[in-house]
């Protein structure tokens, strides 16, 4: 610790603190333009100049100067104020004074400081620049005339996003922030640059001319896309969500968001929202009143209940709040007597609900997000971890670049993570993950790298036995990696003091199930890497409340039907009433033809959703539900974090929150009083769900609570076989596109601009063999169907492997898949 | 007059490796590596009083002593040969005549700081110098003066030549390191200083060509000899002065530190051209405040020049005759600096072009009385820029305001340049 004096205040700060940090700790505000706590100090704007007595009163920047013992600092002498005024005057030489039409007005650091320092008449005058404004994309407007060269956009894009879309060009007064070849912006469009821009040089176009900053009301909540659990601040005016507001103090991610988090809010006030219930009459869905719709639903549910409940089934999305899921489960299990309830087609939660539960004794990750930056070696299963959970991708970037984390990506294709400094990517054959990780376990055992504590974990002998057939030399060919690579990876993993494994889940990743999770947990248990900081396995649920859905037990137990069985039941006529809440199985579940046939067959289909999805179009009754912005409740995200979701606006149209609908149905079917509010449900959850014991709704606070995991781990052998290729066919891999999450993000204009439709990504070698180039239409044909997708030729795909995102309804890839980890397809032009 | 750096010069051609050796070259290297410890080499340089010849005049041995010795991992030595200060061309003259003193000096410096890889960062335009250096490095390597286990001493060092893409800011040591790393040549914030965290985050020493080329003679002849070379007791060693402008002979000469300005102009330069009167000069490169006739007797040494209100800088003297418009002269210099600002920090990026604008206005007869105060403010506050470029650029402006305020006011009052018809 270092002691210093700032403006006569005694301050004690860690020795790596800067004068700016120290002043902040002492509650002394130093003005800044180019400094951002998330980024390396820059020192360019010269607003934070302070005087240090030991440096003969010379003015030095507070943001870059480290503290030293006994330093005596002054932050606002008349001379400093004059210097700051001068900086502002110089900046205003070129900065246009177009505040009345600038969207940043009210949220502009330059404007605020000019006001604060009373620079009411600039003594300096000069011509302004006439840079062309970049209107080329619908998300980010770049007006370099307003730029004050703080470099934050270039720095955040490089340091945190690791994309590098911006760079300084030219020198002197001509210096400016430029893009690749000074052309239009072409990037991930995460908007991090917009969030940190201190002026109006980078603007959100969807928000442009929508509202002045001071007219917005703000609500803090949690993002409703992936399972990362990023906190959001929504900007609201006239009952509409107009933007997301950057708050650098929010969440583990310091307000950092991805494309869909930042721009995807548009689905909330989309014109496509359902605003009234719909009922099928004469084969057509027509508008109906809530009374009419609910009574039709109740009637079906009552008759199912009378028949014993088994004829009713439910498919629900893990996008609902914990409270809604809990009430829904009670509606089926208790009120109707049906165990037929499942989500995410089963395999997007299997790794947790079956894998982790059996191996660890609890259905969750043993690790938390904070472990990513605390580990020494990070083993990421599939480069897709960046696409599924982009903000966790930023955490990986930071870990690798700032903390020297040794990144190993084990993947069936390369990806953005592969390009990080010193990252090693092991590209294996599709579907061979379990084989590979079992081989690593065998190496660890064979080379006596097993942690001493592992012998006290039950099942070690069985595990050893089960691994007989997984010698690296034997599986190398099937994995597509050399035995040496497998051995070295196993040794490095075992010998790393701290190592963390990251496994993304999702509807697009049918191979990421029970066995894969268990093979990974075995590795961690063998090497003593569970239950320690910076260690373990982080299983990343796909949706905002994937972990919560598992916690609430929204998967079949005690002989209930899982998703596949439910759909089979619909087709066979044993399931007569299907209640689909927020799911869109027609697009997201494998084997579209079979799903559609089942839904066409079922006697009564209730769909509760925000939009008239492909699934809702088949319904008998459609109930309009609310988005996350219209709800209170809780989500549980990756790493078991329970966070509060706060209602920002009133329900759109006549829509009702899932909680309101389900609460009413539950009360009616169970013939009991409805819950008073979500807090009452949460109270019941904390009584009934052991992991949530002792946690109260009010006690969750701003940053939520991590529920404590505890269980008895054991080794469970994981089965992994070689995936047999089919000659002349390509291996089709499905998964997430960077900008999308499930099928919901299709209703946000931002994600749809960046990635408007499905595509088939293939290697240059395959492209030249097939004689296709970008955007040519490819026909992909599997045993179950055929689709036509635009080709996207990329360097990251191995030969013979094709990747297609699963989010899109038209030419949807689930026409081709049947739930196997790899689908073999014929490809033609 | 005794010559140290120019001792080996041959008329019209560079000295050869054989000639340099025959004239006692590389004797210092042998003595240093075989008879002296690294610390003794460093101590000799400290005792010699050698100060950096690149402009700032920081004691060379002291700079070396900041390098942590016990830290595991590489240390780097960089020779700054990005000579771009207007009016300065001494390093080019030196290297075009003799690249070996630099190579030898770098090996000795590398030995002193425990450097395993050294770089020469050379200005793009210096093609002949680069060619000489390339040859010299090759010859030194062949002779066993570079590479593994030099002269059986156990000390190993590699030396590489890097040709700069060319920018004034590359001469700033931290921007130079960024450029060498392949990044945009922006300066870095100090602290950490290069001696602690420099090239690729490792301890690094950056020295000027002339500084390093002086090291062999110090090792051969001893620190006391070197100190004694200077013309006044407060100074140490010889200095290359490169004189341009309105003198009869525009030459680069090696002179003892401490000779007065008048002695230099009247001596080696052969006096003023066309018998004109001396009005002013830049004493040490474009970033130093002017000297006038009143400074005729100032000894040209670091401290004496500083005491007289300017800086010895690089020793690049530019002489202006009686009918020079000092506003125009300053504008010329400011135009250079405004163009060469990297654009990183506000005062430099915005302030220098604005000073240029004001001076342009004044020179064109459109100046206002307030402009003098605004210039004064810039001189003061541009000192607080990110690196030394803006403060350096303000050197001549400061000189202009201090010595030639009347001339500025005359422009403003007459609404034209009084030196133009």
Describe the model.
Chain A has 829 residues and is of the alpha/beta class. Among the domains of chain A are: 2-76, Ubiquitin-like (UB roll) (Roll); 278-344 and 549-692, 3-Layer(aba) Sandwich (Rossmann fold), CATH 3.40.50.740; 348-542, Dimethylsulfoxide Reductase, domain 2; 730-828, Barwin-like endoglucanases (Beta Barrel), CATH 2.40.40.20. Helices cover 28% and strands 18% of the residues of chain A. In chain A, the strands form 8 sheets. Chain A has a 7-stranded mixed sheet, with helices on both faces. In chain A, helix 8 (322-336) packs parallel to helix 21 (658-670) and helix 12 (433-446) crosses helix 15. Chain A is globular, with a radius of gyration of 28 Å. In chain B, helix 14 (346-363) runs parallel beside helix 16. The longest helix of chain B is centred in the last third of the chain and has 18 residues, at 346-363. Chain B is of the alpha/beta class and 421 residues long. The mean pLDDT of chain B is 96. The chains are: A alpha/beta (829), B alpha/beta (421).
Write the layout of secondary structure elements.
The complex is a heterodimer of chains A (829) and B (421).
Chain A lengths: L1 E5 L2 E5 L5 H7 L23 E4 L6 E3 L10 E3 L3 H17 L14 H8 L23 E3 L9 H8 L7 E3 L6 E3 L13 H5 L5 E3 L12 E6 L8 E7 L2 E5 L14 H5 L14 E4 L2 E4 L2 H17 L5 E5 L5 H15 L4 E3 L6 H11 L16 E5 L3 H4 L1 H13 L3 E6 L12 E4 L5 H14 L13 H7 L5 H8 L3 H13 L3 E6 L9 H13 L9 E5 L5 H6 L11 H10 L4 E5 L3 H4 L3 H10 L2 E6 L11 E4 L8 E5 L3 E5 L12 H13 L7 H11 L16 E2 L23 E6 L13 H6 L4 E4 L1 H7 L6 E5 L4 E8 L7 E5 L17 E6 L1
Parallel strand pairs in A: 1-5, 15-16, 15-22, 17-18, 17-20, 18-19, 20-21, 22-23, 23-24, 28-32, 29-31
Antiparallel strand pairs in A: 1-2, 3-4, 3-5, 6-9, 7-8, 10-11, 11-12, 13-14, 13-24, 25-26, 26-27, 28-33, 30-31, 30-33
Helix pairs in contact in A: 8-21, 8-22, 9-16, 12-14, 12-15, 12-16, 14-15, 18-20
Chain B lengths: L16 H6 L4 H9 L2 H11 L11 H6 L10 E6 L8 H8 L2 H14 L3 E6 L4 H16 L15 E6 L9 H8 L23 E5 H13 L1 H6 L9 E8 L6 E5 L4 H6 L11 E5 L8 E2 L9 H6 L8 E6 L4 H15 L5 H18 L6 H12 L7 H15 L1 H10 L7
Parallel strand pairs in B: 1-2, 1-4, 2-3, 5-9
Antiparallel strand pairs in B: 5-6, 7-8, 7-9
Helix pairs in contact in B: 2-6, 2-9, 3-6, 5-7, 6-9, 13-14, 13-16, 14-15, 14-16, 15-16
């Amino acid at each position: 610790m270092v002691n210093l004096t700032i403006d006569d205040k005694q301050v004690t700060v860690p020795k790596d603190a800067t004068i700016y940090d120290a002043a902040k700790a002492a509650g002394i505000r130093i003005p800044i333009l180019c400094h951002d706590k998330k980024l390396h100090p820059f020192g360019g704007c010269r607003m934070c100049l302070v005087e240090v007595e030991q440096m003969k009163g010379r003015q030095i920047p507070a943001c870059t100067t480290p503290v030293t013992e006994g330093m005596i600092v002054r932050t606002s002498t008349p001379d400093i104020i004059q210097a700051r005024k001068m900086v502002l005057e110089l900046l205003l030489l070129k900065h246009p004074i177009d505040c009345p039409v600038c969207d940043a007005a009210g949220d502009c650091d330059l404007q605020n400081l000019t006001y604060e320092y009373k620079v009411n008449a600039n003594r300096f005058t000069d011509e302004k620049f006439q840079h062309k404004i970049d209107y080329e994309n619908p998300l980010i407007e770049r007006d370099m005339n307003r730029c004050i060269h703080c470099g934050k956009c270039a720095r955040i894009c490089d340091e945190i996003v690791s994309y590098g879309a911006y760079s300084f060009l030219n020198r002197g007064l001509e210096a400016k922030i430029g893009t690749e070849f000074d052309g239009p912006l072409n990037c991930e469009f995460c908007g991090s640059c917009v969030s940190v821009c201190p002026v109006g040089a980078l603007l959100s176009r969807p928000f442009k001319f929508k509202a002045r900053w001071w007219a917005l009301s703000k609500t803090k909540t949690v993002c409703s896309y992936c399972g990362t659990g990023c906190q959001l601040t929504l900007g609201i005016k006239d009952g509409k969500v107009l933007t997301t507001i950057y708050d650098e103090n929010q969440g583990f991610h310091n307000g950092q968001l991805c494309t869909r988090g930042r721009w995807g809010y548009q689905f909330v006030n989309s014109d496509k929202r359902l605003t009234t219930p719909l009922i099928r009459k004469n084969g057509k869905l027509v508008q109906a009143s809530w009374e009419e719709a609910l009574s039709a639903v109740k009637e079906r549910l009552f008759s199912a209940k009378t028949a014993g409940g088994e004829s009713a089934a439910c498919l629900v999305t893990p996008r609902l709040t914990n409270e809604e899921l809990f009430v829904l489960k009670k509606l089926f299990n208790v009120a109707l007597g049906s165990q037929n309830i499942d989500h995410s087609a089963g395999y997007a939660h299997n790794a947790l609900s079956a894998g982790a539960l059996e191996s660890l004794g609890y259905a969750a990750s043993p690790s938390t997000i904070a472990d990513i930056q605390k580990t020494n070696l990070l083993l990421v299963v599939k480069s897709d971890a960046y696409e599924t959970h982009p903000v966790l991708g930023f955490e990986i970037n930071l870990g690798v670049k700032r903390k020297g984390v040794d990144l190993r990506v084990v993947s069936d294709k390369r990806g953005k993570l592969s390009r990080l400094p010193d990252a090693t990517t092991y590209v294996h054959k599709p579907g061979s993950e379990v084989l590979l990780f079992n081989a690593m376990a065998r190496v660890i055992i064979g080379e006596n790298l097993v942690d001493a504590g592992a012998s006290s974990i039950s099942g070690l002998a069985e595990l050893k036995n089960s691994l007989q057939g997984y010698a690296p030399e034997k599986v190398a060919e099937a994995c597509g990696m050399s035995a040496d690579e497998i051995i070295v990876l196993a040794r490095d993993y075992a010998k790393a003091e701290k190592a963390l494994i990251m496994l993304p889940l999702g509807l697009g990743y049918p191979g990421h199930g029970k066995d894969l999770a268990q093979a990974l947990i075995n590795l961690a248990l063998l090497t003593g890497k569970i239950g320690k900081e910076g260690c373990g396995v982080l299983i990343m649920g796909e949706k905002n409340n994937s972990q919560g859905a598992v916690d609430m037990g929204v998967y079949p137990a005690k002989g209930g039907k899982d998703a596949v069985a439910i759909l089979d039941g619909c087709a066979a006529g044993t399931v007569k009433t299907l209640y689909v809440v927020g799911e869109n199985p027609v697009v997201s579940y494998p084997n579209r033809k079979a799903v559609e046939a089942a839904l066409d067959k079922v006697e009564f289909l209730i769909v509760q959703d925000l939009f008239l999805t492909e699934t809702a179009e088949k319904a008998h009754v459609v109930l309009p539900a609310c988005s996350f912005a219209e709800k209170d409740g809780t989500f549980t995200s990756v790493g078991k974090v329970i966070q509060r979701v706060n209602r920002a606006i009133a329900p759109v149209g006549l829509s009702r929150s899932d909680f309101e609908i389900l609460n009413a149905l539950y009360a009616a079917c169970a013939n009991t009083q409805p819950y008073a509010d979500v807090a009452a449900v949460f109270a019941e959850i904390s009584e009934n769900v052991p992991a949530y014991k002792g946690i109260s709704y009010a006690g969750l606070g701003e940053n939520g609570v991590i529920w404590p995991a505890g269980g008895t781990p054991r080794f469970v052998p994981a089965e992994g076989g070689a995936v047999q290729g089919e000659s002349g066919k390509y291996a089709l891999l499905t998964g997430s596109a960077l900008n999308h999450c499930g099928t919901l993000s299709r209703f946000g204009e931002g994600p749809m601009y960046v990635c408007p439709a499905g595509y088939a990504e293939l290697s240059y070698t395959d492209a030249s063999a097939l004689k296709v180039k970008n955007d040519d239409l490819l026909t992909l044909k599997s045993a179950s169907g055929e689709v036509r997708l635009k080709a996207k030729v990329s360097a990251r795909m191995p030969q013979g492997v094709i990747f297609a995102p699963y989010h899109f309804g038209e030419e949807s890839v689930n026409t081709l898949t049947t739930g196997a980890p790899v689908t073999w397809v014929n490809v033609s032009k | 007059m005794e010559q140290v750096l120019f001792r080996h010069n041959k008329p019209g051609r560079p000295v050869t490796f054989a000639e340099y050796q025959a004239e006692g070259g590389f004797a210092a290297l042998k003595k240093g590596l075989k008879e002296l410890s690294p610390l003794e080499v460093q101590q000799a340089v400290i005792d010699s009083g050698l100060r950096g010849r690149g402009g700032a005049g920081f004691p060379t041995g002291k700079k070396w002593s900041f390098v942590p010795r016990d830290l595991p991992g590489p240390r780097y030595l960089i020779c700054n040969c990005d000579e771009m200060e207007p009016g300065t061309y001494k390093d080019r003259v030196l290297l075009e005549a003799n690249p070996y003193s630099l190579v030898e000096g770098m090996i000795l410096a590398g030995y002193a700081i425990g450097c395993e890889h050294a770089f020469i960062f050379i200005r793009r335009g210096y093609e002949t110098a680069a060619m000489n250096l390339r040859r010299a490095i090759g010859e030194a390597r062949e002779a066993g003066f570079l590479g593994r286990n030099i002269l059986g001493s156990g000390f190993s060092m590699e030396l590489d030549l890097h040709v700069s893409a060319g920018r004034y800011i590359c001469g700033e040591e931290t921007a130079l390191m960024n450029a060498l790393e392949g990044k945009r040549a922006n300066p870095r914030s100090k602290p950490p200083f290069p001696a602690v965290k420099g090239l690729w985050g490792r301890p690094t020493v950056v020295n000027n060509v002339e500084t390093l080329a002086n090291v062999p003679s110090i090792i051969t002849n001893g620190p006391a000899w070197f100190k004694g070379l200077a013309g006044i007791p407060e100074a140490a060693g010889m200095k290359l002065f490169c004189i341009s402008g309105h003198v009869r002979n525009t030459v680069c000469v090696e002179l003892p530190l401490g000779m007065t300005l008048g002695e230099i102009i009247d001596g080696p330069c052969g006096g003023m051209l066309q018998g004109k009167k001396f009005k002013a000069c830049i004493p040490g490169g474009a970033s130093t405040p002017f000297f006038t006739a009143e400074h005729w007797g100032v000894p040209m040494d670091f401290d004496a020049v500083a005491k007289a209100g300017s800086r010895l800088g690089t020793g690049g003297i530019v002489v202006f005759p009686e009918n020079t418009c000092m506003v125009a002269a300053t504008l010329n210099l400011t135009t250079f600096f405004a163009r060469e600002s990297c654009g990183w920090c506000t005062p430099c990026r915005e302030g220098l072009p604005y000073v240029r604008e004001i001076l342009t206005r004044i020179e064109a007869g459109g100046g206002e009385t307030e402009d003098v105060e605004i210039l004064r403010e810039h001189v003061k506050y541009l000192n607080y820029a990110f690196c030394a470029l803006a403060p350096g650029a303000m050197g001549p402006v400061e000189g202009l305001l201090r010595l030639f305020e009347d001339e500025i006011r005359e422009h403003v009052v007459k609404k034209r340049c009084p030196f133009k018809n």
